[in-house]
Amino acid sequence: MPRLQEEGSGPVHGFWMSTVGSARPTETGTVHQPTGLDLAMKLHYIKAVYIYSAEMTRDLTVMHVKETFFTVFDQISWITGRLRRRDSGRPFIKCNDCGTRVVESQCDLTVDEWLCVPDRSVDESLVYHQPVGPELAYSPLIYIQMTRYKCGGLALGLSWAHIMGDPFSLSHIFSLWTRALAGEVIYCPQTSGSRRGFPKPNSTGKEPNSIKQVDPVGDLWVAPNKTKMTTYSFKVTVNDIKTNFPAKGFEFEILSGILWKCIAKARGDSELVTITIVRSDPNELKPRAVRNCQMISSVHVDFSVAEADLEEIVKSIGEATDERFWIDEIGERDDGVLDFVVYGAELTFVDLTQVDFYEAKIRETSPVSVYCNVQGIGDEGAVVILPAAKEGERVVTVTLPEAEMDKVKCELKKCGLITPLVNGGG
Questions:
Q1: Is 101 strand, coil or helix?
Q2: Record's InterPro entries (predicted)?
Q3: What pLDDT tens digit does each residue of the chain (426 aa) get?
């Protein structure tokens, strides 16, 4: 299903835009300085959708939502600021309380009807997204779309500029909002003004595999693609993975190994020997601050993945090398004015299985569905894996060049990871 942002173009329609910001003014002259890692992520955006039943949200108004976000933005006012450039060209965020855009829309379906579609990439139409630029001073860093279903249910979709923080930060902010909505007093620590050090791996003399410099994009922050990309989403169960694909390793590593092998087969590409792994930092400080500190690791093998045994592939994923130190250094080059892609620079696997998306409760009830993906994925593609509403299930969202997707689906069916009956056949 394509993006639906015009009246009458589909079940989602009636868009109305307004603004919400901080309740308290930020001190004049306050700025937020992105780190090298932040700047390396600036062409990427995170998209998340939380869908709630009518019983929990029928009487939740736009004003309820806005007033509660006031409380959250008071804690971290720089995420409602606007980007500027220094004389050198380096971007920074001016904390001027310009606010976040709130987009109201309606859906002609009930929540149950909406969730009948197995391919959850349809949820992309519940996220209003505009890239940063071309006028930095007028570009919000967050969009919040509120879609009311005809049954009274509610979808809250967020588009989040990755320069501010990783997917774990977005989830944290949204959970803070639900806690504030419940009347709790919330607190979010400020991001440290000093650069956070990342462990320096043994030098190999090579540039990291997980980041790729692209041609300058100027002030319109859109990742360039040579090919048209498309997205497909399906569910798997942890039990099926462990039963049908026996291998030593964590479920994310096994599932990533299966998908890496399927994509390599579909491409007929014996050179698909390098991937990127993005996952939470096990050493992240608590309580969580809003920032980019996700672990970005690289895996390189010297064998044909398409022909290899799954056990061998999974073992190599478990030995991924953390490259954040080098990415942070590269992001600082030329005082942070260069442009890069990370997701899709190499085939990228994103582990969100440990994110507590379903802890974002309204009236003590979890969302009935959560979707999360990345906008601005490079030509090598990406796979995002996150928990489903049902315990023991995982949502897998694959973004690849359009010309490859049918071949990849065919390989997924051959290996038994998806079936035409359960996953729509595609």
A1: strand
A2: CAT-like_dom_sf (IPR023213), Plant_Fungal_Acyltransferase (IPR050317)
A3: 333 344 446 899 989 999 888 778 888 899 999 999 999 999 999 999 999 999 999 899 999 999 999 889 988 889 999 999 999 999 999 999 999 999 999 999 999 999 999 999 999 999 999 999 999 999 999 999 999 999 999 999 999 999 999 999 999 999 999 999 999 998 877 765 445 678 777 666 678 999 999 999 999 999 999 999 999 999 999 998 988 888 888 899 999 999 999 999 999 977 899 999 999 988 876 667 789 989 999 999 999 999 999 999 999 999 999 999 999 999 999 999 999 999 999 999 999 999 999 999 999 999 999 999 999 999 999 999 999 999 999 999 999 999 999 999 999 999 999 876 444 444
Domains 12-181 and 212-423 share a fold: yes
Residue-level length of the chain: 426
Report the topology of domain 12-181.
Chloramphenicol Acetyltransferase (3.30.559)
DSSP bridge partners of 46:
160, 374
> Which pair of tokens denotes residue 301?
């093998």
Q: Which one-letter DSSP state was computed for residue 289?
A: P
Q: Do 22 and 124 contact (CB within 8 A), yes or no?
A: no
By CB atoms closer than 10 A (0-12, 13-18, 19+), residue 414 is exposed
Q: Could you tell me if 328 and 195 are in contact, meaning their C-beta atoms sit under 8 angstroms apart? A: yes
Token pair in block for residue 49? 């959708």
Strand partners, 19: 101
Of residues 406, 386, 404, 407, the one with CA closest to residue 396? 386
What are the C-alpha distances in Å from 155 to residues 53, 189, 319? 9, 28, 39
pTM, two decimals, is 0.93
Amino acid at 145: Q
Pairing of strands 91-94, 100-107: unpaired
Contact 251, 238 (CB under 8 A): yes
212-423 sits in which CATH class?
alpha beta
Structure tokens that stand for 360 in this block: 């974002």
Assess contact for 29 and 111: CB atoms under 8 A.
no
